Amino acid sequence: MPLVVGAILSGALALESRAASLIGLGDFDGGSYNSRGLGVSPDASVVVGRGNSGSGNVAFRWTQARGLVQLPTTTGGIFPGQFNEAYAVSQNGGTVVGASRSFLGEGVLWTQAGGTLVIGCTLPPPNDGGCIPSTSTSPIPRTISATGVSADGSVVVGFGGSVPAEQGFRWDQRSGSFIGFAAQSEAFGISASGFAVVGWVTTTHGREAFLWTQATGLQGLGDLPGGNFSSQALDVSADGSAVVGVSRSGRGDEAFLWTQTSGMMPLGVDTEAHGVSAQGVAVVGVGDGAFYWTQTGGLEKLRDVLAMQGVDVSAWLSLDVAYDISPDGTAIVGYGTRDDPANGNPPEAFLVRDLADGDQDGVSNATDNCPYFATTVVTDADSDGRGDACECTDQNGDGFNTVADLVAINLAIIDPLRVTPLCDGNGDGRCDAADIMAATIELYTPTSTSTCPRNPLPGV
Ligand SMILES: [Ca+2]
Ligand SMILES: [Ca+2]
Ligand SMILES: [Ca+2]
Ligand SMILES: [Ca+2]
């Protein structure tokens, strides 16, 4: 009998979500103790950011197995005052982007296979250290920060040049296409498929947050009512539908959440939003410490949310800033203050994992087969692990990816009234011929490669 009971228990446990946890990522030996987590991969297995070693400020890539690993600098060494930071990481954790500012100042793209690729320096080959040559009318400036990367690692956004002549850019390695946004602009975020980019541009009013897509071009997002005109977008959701950042209102600077349907919404006085999960369900940033915002819960202290979920937060005096949240809303990174008076209560990078019900739909993480879309529907007609409600390219809505969907997508291209949220199978925000290709790949290699706003990442 005990064996039977044990079997039932382990079966039940397998269906339960793992409890939320809060992990300190430590710092390198030597130097001051000061690290921060700036970006997290969708499955929370890789965190990137910066720490401090005996040689100075260094960029890191963290995994559970290897801990903090220092990323190479563009100069090979580190010298006092040098600035190295890793900002974002691709879906499989293999591509990291950031800045490594020597006296020249270069953007960096680190890949596990290809090593370090320096973006934007201007020395001619062969002394260019692997610099990306300028291939368009808008030359890649020398001083660059690479701030965001698409899920497959192929499209990089950031900004180059120095104030006040900085310029935001989007660089597509596949096509070589380099787009420089308006003069005096910066780009900070990119959607999973790379079709949407956010940042800010300088207008006659002042700084204005923008959303750029291949279909619509540059769209100003306005600003919060009251106060001076000022807004900056700092992140876009993986599906491209929600933008967050900071704007000036009549009450001061406030974090905002923007969506096409609701426009720009203030989240609280003296806050700044740095990250947003798919479809704008959860927003993280900094206010009076790291905050966590949801439609239902409003603005909350991240530390309180974790404590409510039973996480032991006693080793931390405070969680100070949250910089990124995973598309499914279950992982958050940033830095906090350790309760360690003997060592001066140092700041340290943290990773929150397995936050309960990341997409806030009442379905536990373990049983949620549409983790990027809030729905209580969990039927999965074709048993591929992806729920019917987020079965991208299932344009006819029967839960299966079949030839009938190729026909249905064709009809939707001709008659836009027929377009469903599942038509956009390549996740570029449009229902067109490219989605027939995505549907065909899904049909013949059924590994859930298609993407759409309800499931913006392939293969999951
Ligand atoms: Ca869900
Ligand atoms: Ca399915
Ligand atoms: Ca179908
Ligand atoms: Ca599409």
- Report the mean per-residue pLDDT as an integer: 88
Percentage of β-strand residues: 35-45%
Task: Enumerate the spans where pLDDT stays under 50 for 5 or more consecutive residues.
Answer: 1-15, 122-140
Helix content: under 10%
What is the helix tally? 4
CATH superfamily of the largest domain: YVTN repeat-like/Quinoprotein amine dehydrogenase
**Tally of distinct domains:** 2
Shape: globular
Give the radius of gyration. Answer: 22 Å
CATH architecture of the largest domain: 7 Propeller
What is the number of beta strands? 28
Each distinct ligand? calcium ion
Describe the biggest sheet?
A: 4 strands, antiparallel
* CATH topology heading of the largest domain: Methylamine Dehydrogenase, Chain H
Biggest sheet: strands side by side, in what order? 1-28-27-26
Structural class: mainly beta
Structural overview:
With 460 residues, the protein is mainly beta. Helix content is 10%, strand content 38%. It has 2 domains: 20-353, Methylamine Dehydrogenase, Chain H; 364-460, no CATH class. The chain has 4 helices and 28 strands. Strand 7 (95-101) and strand 8 (106-111) form a beta hairpin. The longest helix has 14 residues, at 2-15. The model is unreliable at 1-15 and 122-140 (pLDDT under 50). Residues 359, 361, 363, 368, 370-371, 373-375 line the site of one calcium ion.
What's a quick, concise take on this entry?
With 460 residues, the protein is mainly β.
List the helices and strands and how they pair.
Blueprint: H1 2-15, E1 21-24, E2 36-40, E3 46-53, E4 56-63, E5 67-70, E6 83-89, E7 95-101, E8 106-111, E9 115-119, E10 144-149, E11 155-160, E12 167-172, E13 178-183, E14 185-190, E15 196-202, E16 207-213, E17 217-220, E18 231-236, E19 242-249, E20 252-259, E21 263-269, E22 272-276, E23 282-287, E24 289-294, E25 298-301, H2 302-308, E26 316-325, E27 332-338, E28 347-353, H3 403-414, H4 433-444
Antiparallel strand pairs: 1-28, 2-3, 3-4, 4-5, 6-7, 7-8, 8-9, 10-11, 11-12, 12-13, 14-15, 15-16, 16-17, 18-19, 19-20, 20-21, 22-23, 23-24, 24-25, 26-27, 27-28
Residues 359, 361, 363, 368, 370-371, 373-375 line the site of one calcium ion.
